[in-house]
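Protein Record: Sequence and Backbone Structure Tokens
======================================================

Structure line: whole-number tokens from a learned vocabulary of local backbone shapes, matched to residues.

Purpose: to set a sequence beside its fold so the mapping can be learned.

___
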Amino acid sequence: MLHLPPYPTFPQLITSRLVLRELTEEDIPQTLEITRFDGKPPRDLEEANQMIRKIRAECLEGKLIHWAIETRETGEIVGTCGYYRGFENGAGEIGYILLEKFRGQGFMTEVVNAAVEFGFQTMKLSQVFAITSAKNQASQNVLTKCGFITDGVPDEKEDIRFERLA
């Protein structure tokens, strides 16, 4: 049986270098450049705050879970990660984005592994999948390192689907 959001206490995930925690409006200035809702960036700070409120509302409705990613050492936000677009048939779609200055340091591999473990162990998902651009080799590398497989064939939008089974 699935165990989906909302949770009595927002789940915090801790890895060797990172903490995945609830994103708050106070985090918006640090995450403005990577904030998205339905794939669209905000035009300004107020719209970003509205997006965070929508994300929080959808989490409370059990539609998604969205984490801020911060370093354990400094508390600086490095990106965001979550499960988005529902959980039909026990499958969860994972998405993530990292601030550019933190790329290439292995952070996202750590994050994806922690989020996938949470998806399988806590949420009781049977499958986790991700969709990434055929041009985004870095994301494809992360997914491959985290045990995802793909047929490698881009769809009509030039996206590739990766999946991992429980």
Observations:
- The longest strand covers residues 77-84.
